[in-house]
């Protein structure tokens, strides 16, 4: 218990007043002359004892009434937690702000963040002067230092909606850790949030609850700035069939349109597709390339799909946008970037006759219908091994060597130079491999391993991937549990020992032997498949059945993409994520100008070592464009897009029961509005005052004192004869 006005306890000294009055106003026994004096004396002693008891009871009630009055004026209060320091003692204040895009929801002409800023500013005006304030927001990873009240107000006023760099539970953990560093005894934590369910998931808050078990003295207020029944339409995460495609190819875009809080009746929504062509001016407006009408009933979702054929090489940037306005415009648009390139050139080297031994690979990479239509993403050139040494390799995106025979040291050096400069080399071993020559030093500078012997299966084995995280297996991730590897048995392969440096096994066989190995050589990479890709299925001596089913086709394409670096090519990122872009190989620019979605531009340095561009400031979602100042072959004109995750604008709210379940062992308050904040701050610092209760008890005591006082001091005017008769009557009955 603490006292808001402890000096009022001095009023308890007034207890001396009824004590003095009691001593002064004592009644004296009435002298009655009667012959039987001994009976009168006995009666007198009995009356005296009764009077003393009555007087003591009245004295006690009067003293208690005065004590309760003094106690009530001292305004005692009860606190379940927190220190017992004075009301004006400085406070260690930690404020955590949810600045995620959903805080841009507008209600009564104010966003939720604007509402939080107003309430936080009002709150800062109530803290003692010497208090220290720490501010945390979900859109920043900056370290936090204590601020004075004036600086804290300025910082709060500059808060803005940003992509969520860390979740709200992570912010609360950081806030509690920072609060623990303070030397002040009183600690208060304020969480400004719209109470969206995605931000208050129980599992994510488990570490927060564990920290609160240690810091039980911290007062916690959850400031709810959300809307009870939000209404919104939003687009889900955008999906692209591919981010890099060949000239004349088609990219498929898909997303979902989700409704919340709208009427149960079916409503029609329109989503439009806008595209900016390559090499457009920065201020050039995008062109509308499509429109979709989506009917949705109630709080449900509808599928939105577009197909876009792109004919000219370059970077295309666009957006999907809901027609019309709602309370949260941040999730009405999704951005995308795709790159169109001329068909990639892949060199396939095979033994004579090349048409027979190099049938499966070009058909898998560039099927005949797409080649005839001029839409093949890969252009395959097939040569024999005797032409390899004289061929200029730099013009090829990747090289496949099928069942290589004996190769000269000069050819191996030629291949090593190609790979070191960033090329991709794929090797599929077969019956023509020579043990000694493949294990020679010249070959081992390129090969991912040493071959030991041919393995002929009495029982066929299969490819048995253990981990689908490598880019070579990226297309299998969504169906990894149902890939029919059993339909592609392996009958023969080369047992291989991985190289000691820079080599790893990507896919083993079911018997544990290496099936696919990788080695990084300089800026390039080499893949070694220990079984053949050159045997026709009609050949009874075929080493495997990989060409017989779709896993073999998909695997060959993903391996080729990996060798060409296409699996690394990425133009679409999450807002706030590091964007890494590969520049054209012929680029000589060391400085580019980056245009951001908000219309600003700044200079960016190019990493000439790896010929990449790294952009760290991607918190603003939208389309970015990077250009060099020159013209011609050396000029840079590339782009990328960032989007906020769809879950960051999910407005469905958590319930008070769910919050109580999460913080069941800790006292916290959920407050809405400025009045509730004032009341919560008062309760948190002063506690719950019990003055009204004390005043009620005092009133009851005064009423009792009044009744007893009238009863005890009441006198009846009697004549002497009546008095004598009454005394005689009492004596007779006694």
Task: Explain what you see.
- By secondary structure, the protein is an alpha/beta fold.
- The chain folds into 5 domains: 2-79 and 690-733, no CATH class; 91-230 and 651-685, 3-Layer(aba) Sandwich (Rossmann fold), CATH 3.40.50.410; 232-341, Immunoglobulin-like; 344-564, Class I glutamine amidotransferase (GATase) domain (Rossmann fold, 3-Layer(aba) Sandwich); 572-643, Sandwich (Immunoglobulin-like), CATH 2.60.40.
- The protein contains 17 helices and 35 strands.
- It has a 7-stranded mixed beta sheet, sandwiched between helices. The chain has a 5-stranded parallel beta sheet with strand order 6-3-7-8-34, with helices on both faces.
- Helix 5 (168-179) runs parallel beside helix 6.
- It is elongated.
- 35% of the residues are buried.
- The model is unreliable at 80-85 and 727-734 (pLDDT under 50).
Largest sheet: 7 strands, mixed
| Parts with pLDDT < 50 across at least 5 consecutive residues | 80-85, 727-734
The CATH topology of the largest domain is given as Rossmann fold
**Radius of gyration from the alpha-carbon trace, in angstroms:** 43 Å
Assign the CATH architecture of the largest domain.
Answer: 3-Layer(aba) Sandwich
Order of adjacent strands in the largest pleated sheet? 19-18-20-21-26-25-24
* Strand count: 35
What's the CATH first level of the largest domain?
A: Alpha Beta
Strand content: 25-35%
| Range of helix content | 25-40%
Count of domain modules: 5
Global geometry: elongated
Which structural class do the helices and strands define? Answer: alpha/beta
Average pLDDT number: 83
Oligomer classification: single chain
CATH superfamily of the largest domain: Class I glutamine amidotransferase (GATase) domain
The number of distinct helices, counting runs of at least 4 residues, comes to 17
């Amino acid at each position: 218990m603490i006292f808001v006005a402890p000096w009022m306890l001095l009023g308890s000294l007034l207890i001396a007043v009824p004590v003095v009055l009691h001593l002064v106003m004592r009644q004296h026994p009435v002298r009655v002359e009667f012959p039987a004096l001994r009976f009168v004396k006995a009666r007198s002693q009995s009356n005296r004892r009764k009077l003393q008891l009555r007087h003591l009871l009245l004295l006690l009630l009067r003293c208690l009434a005065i004590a309760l009055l003094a106690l009530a004026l001292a305004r005692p209060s009860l606190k379940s937690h927190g220190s017992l320091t004075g009301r004006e003692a400085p406070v260690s204040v930690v404020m955590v702000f949810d600045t995620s895009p959903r805080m841009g929801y507008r209600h009564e002409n104010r966003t939720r963040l604007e509402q939080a800023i107003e309430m936080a500013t009002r709150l800062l005006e109530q803290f003692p002067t010497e208090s220290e304030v720490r501010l945390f927001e979900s859109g920043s990873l900056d370290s936090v230092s204590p601020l004075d009240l004036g600086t804290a107000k300025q910082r709060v006023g500059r808060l803005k909606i940003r992509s969520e760099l860390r979740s709200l539970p992570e912010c609360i953990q950081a806030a509690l850790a920072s609060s623990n560093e303070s030397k002040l005894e009183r600690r208060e934590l304020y969480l400004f949030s719209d109470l969206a369910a995605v931000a208050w998931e129980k599992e994510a808050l488990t570490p927060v609850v564990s920290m609160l078990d240690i810091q039980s003295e911290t007062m916690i207020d959850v400031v709810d700035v959300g809307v009870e029944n939000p209404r919104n339409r939003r687009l889900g995460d955008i999906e692209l069939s591919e981010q890099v495609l060949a000239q004349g190819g088609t990219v498929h875009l898909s997303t979902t349109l989700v409704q919340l809080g709208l009427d149960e009746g079916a409503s029609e929504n329109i989503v439009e597709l806008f595209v900016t062509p390559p090499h457009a001016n920065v201020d050039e407006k995008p062109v509308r390339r499509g429109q979709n009408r989506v009917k949705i009933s109630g709080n449900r979702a509808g599928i939105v799909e577009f197909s876009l054929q792109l004919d000219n090489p370059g970077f295309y940037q666009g957006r999907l946008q809901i027609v019309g306005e709602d309370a949260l415009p941040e999730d009405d648009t999704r951005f995308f970037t795709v790159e169109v390139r001329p068909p990639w050139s892949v060199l396939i080297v095979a033994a004579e006759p090349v048409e027979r031994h190099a049938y499966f690979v070009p058909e898998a990479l560039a099927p005949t219908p797409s080649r005839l239509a001029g839409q093949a993403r890969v252009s395959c050139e097939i040569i024999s091994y005797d032409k390899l040494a004289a061929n200029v390799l730099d013009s090829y995106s990747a090289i496949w060597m099928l069942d290589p025979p004996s190769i000269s040291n000069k050819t191996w050096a030629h291949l090593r130079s190609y790979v070191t400069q960033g090329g991709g080399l794929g090797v599929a071993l077969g019956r023509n491999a020579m043990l000694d020559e493949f294990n020679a030093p010249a070959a081992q500078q390129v090969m991912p391993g040493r071959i030991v012997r041919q393995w002929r299966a009495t029982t066929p084995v299969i490819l048995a991937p253990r981990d689908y995280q490598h880019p070579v297996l990226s297309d299998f991730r969504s169906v990894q549990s149902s890939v029919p590897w059993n339909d592609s048995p392996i009958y023969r392969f080369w047992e291989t020992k991985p190289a000691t440096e820079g080599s790893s096994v990507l896919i083993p066989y079911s018997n544990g032997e290496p099936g696919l190995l990788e080695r990084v050589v300089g800026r390039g990479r080499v893949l070694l498949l220990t079984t053949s890709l050159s045997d026709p299925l009609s050949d009874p001596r075929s080493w495997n059945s990989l060409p017989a089913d779709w896993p073999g086709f998909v695997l060959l394409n993903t391996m080729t993409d990996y060798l060409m670096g296409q699996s690394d090519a990425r133009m679409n990122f999450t807002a706030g994520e590091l964007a890494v872009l590969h520049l054209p190989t012929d680029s000589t620019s060391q400085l580019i100008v980056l245009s951001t979605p908000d219309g600003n531009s700044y200079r960016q340095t190019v990493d000439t070592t790896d010929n990449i561009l790294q952009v760290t400031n991607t918190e603003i979602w939208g389309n970015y464009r990077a250009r060099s100042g020159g013209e011609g072959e050396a000029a840079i004109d590339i782009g990328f897009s960032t989007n906020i995750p769809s879950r960051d604008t999910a407005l469905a709210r958590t319930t008070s029961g769910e919050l109580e379940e999460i913080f069941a062992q800790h006292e916290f308050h959920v407050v809405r509005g400025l009045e509730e904040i004032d009341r919560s701050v008062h309760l948190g610092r002063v506690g719950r005052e019990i003055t009204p209760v004390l005043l009620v008890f005092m009133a009851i005591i005064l009423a009792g004192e009044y009744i007893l006082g009238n009863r005890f001091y009441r006198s009846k005017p009697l004549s002497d004869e009546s008095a004598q008769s009454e005394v005689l009557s009492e004596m007779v009955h006694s």
